[in-house]
Amino acid sequence: MKSTPDLTVSRWARTGLWLRMTRPLFLLLTVVACVLGTATAAACGCGLDLSLAAGATALAVLAHAAGNVLNDLHDARNGADASNQTGLHPFTGGSRLIQTGAVSERQTAELAQALCVFLLPAGLLLAVMTGPGVLLLGLAGMALAWAYSAPPFRLMSRGLGELSVGLVWFLVVIGADYVQRRQFFPIPAAVALSFATLVAALLLANGFPDRAADAQVGKQTLVVRLGPSAAAALYGTWVVLAHGWLALSVWLLIPPMQALWGLLSLPVSLAAWAWLWRYRHRPSRLRPALALSASAVMAHGLGMAWGFWQLASAR
Description:
This protein has helices at residues 7-21, 24-43, 50-77, 105-130, 132-149, 161-181, 186-206, 211-216, 222-226, 228-251, 266-278, 287-313. It is mainly alpha-helical and 315 residues long. Helix 5 packs antiparallel against helix 6.
């Protein structure tokens, strides 16, 4: 008697593979950014529509996933991931599913295309419900995500990748606020700036283990362009500026004092910087620095969001 294949197992395996292609660990950054943007609107007395917040967060996460899949595809095509023997998974080196043969470049391209095809009508629907600003923000974010990896722009290869990624998360925070507020406002922009700067610093740190492979294929990240010492110094400058701007913006009465909860990330960022500086020439020892850097971004966003939620609950 012939056995029939377990289609349920196959579907679950395929779904799990698709999820791994999106690099789900880093999708948490987008969730935190959306929580922060939603909190800034709620704290200003703009109300809280949980269904809109959930929908906007889901779309932002899917857009981030599409960007990650596109990055894997183009790093496979330019040879960066294939030549990368020093990456520290899951922080650097992509998902490596193409390199291990788990998926093909064609399947990766098809997943990226499917995500983008879904995002367009869903984004239009959200814009109809909230206003045209969210559509402009979404299109700008997707354009940056595409230009980050894809030719002819390939911003990641021109020393602009870190700043462009930071700008994307700046837009995510503003977009989550806009969905609730229905207009642009300076407070979310102020807190988004410090959050986005730490995201850019995270990407800079992640470039250290990939430096040799990136240089080999002409991927001129900031670490490749500057070298380990100058890049580590730049990382420290960015984290100090991010936290300094948050303190200054509160002093200037842009966000409320409760936003200072975001300074909880400062010791974590400084610890990441110290580890990065110490082992800047030994990329295999940098995993703790990368973990600390990612944790600092999370703590910064969630700390500010906590402060804004406290203010919202007191109204």
